[in-house]
Amino acid sequence: MDLALLKQLNRERAARRGCILVSEIATGAQRLVLETDDTSADPLAEEFAARFRSGKSGMVSDEADGQVFLNVSVPPPRLVVIGAVHISQALTPIAAIAGFDMEIIDPRTAFASPERFPDVPLHAEWPEDVIPRKVSLDRYTALAALTHDPKIDDYPLIKALSSGCFYVGALGSRKTHASRVERLTKAGASEADLARIKAPIGVNIGAASPAEIAVAVMAQIIEELRKGARASVPAPVREAMA
Question: Could you tell me which residues come within 8 angstroms of residue 15 by beta carbon, excluding any fewer than 6 positions away?
């Protein structure tokens, strides 16, 4: 691979941006397609879109270039949880089983302790001090705000909306969410952005216990990942370079 191309590929990976290395089998020529590129005029445009959705590499045929191999490089979906609560404890193993990396942010050290969360990165700090300095948000990230405390939840919700997170959810009743919408509107969030917040959080399965709510939240995140308006977020597939 050309050194400049390799450096560009590594930059995209480090920045958690999707890209596809296109290799012509007959000639060995290579090019890099970024997920942010306008590929509408490319003969492989539909194939690129499908590959970014699936995250899977593979061989395809192109009328102009013959057989080409598409090596897809995409970051795994990630779940950032605001609040080291009982629901978060139940979410931890579920997210891991579903293939999601997960991090938790909560300034309340009585809740955010390694003893309660031994298997997940934990930030016992205010979200303002963590995002984006230690935890970046992007279109491959789902954010779930679970503290029920505006002082903790509001800032990451605004940042998640402005960062294009594929899923943004918040715990609370419809009345609680109405008050939240008023606050976030005053903070500058648009009506379209606010409409993206899933609240009350989780699929409506009548969940009552923290464990049941965790199942409902994870189900909603996966539904948005696979069927939502931003369904171009790929599967958690990590494939080696060809």
Answer: none
pLDDT tens for residues 144-183?
999 999 999 999 999 999 999 999 999 999 999 999 999 9
Q: Which helix (H) or strand (E) holds 129?
A: helix 127-130
- In contact, 22 and 60? CB cutoff 8 Å: no
Residues listed for the chain: 242
Portions of the chain given CATH number 3.40.50.720:
78-227
d(CA 241, CA 30): 13
CA 21/CA 90 separation, integer angstroms: 38
How many CB atoms sit inside 10 A of residue 98's CB?
17
Residue 195 CA from chain centroid, whole number = 18
DSSP string, 73-108: E-PPPEEEEE--SHHHHHHHHHHHHTT-EEEEE-S-
What global pTM score does this model have?
0.80
CA-closest candidate to residue 142, choices 126, 166, 159, 120: 166
User: Could you read off the pLDDT of 175-223 as tens digits, one per residue?
Assistant: 999 999 999 999 999 999 999 999 999 999 999 999 999 999 999 999 9
Query: How many Å apart are CA 122 and CA 114, to the nearest integer?
Result: 7
Q: Which CATH number fits domain 78-227: 3.40.50.12780, 3.40.640.10, 3.30.70.100, 3.40.50.720?
A: 3.40.50.720
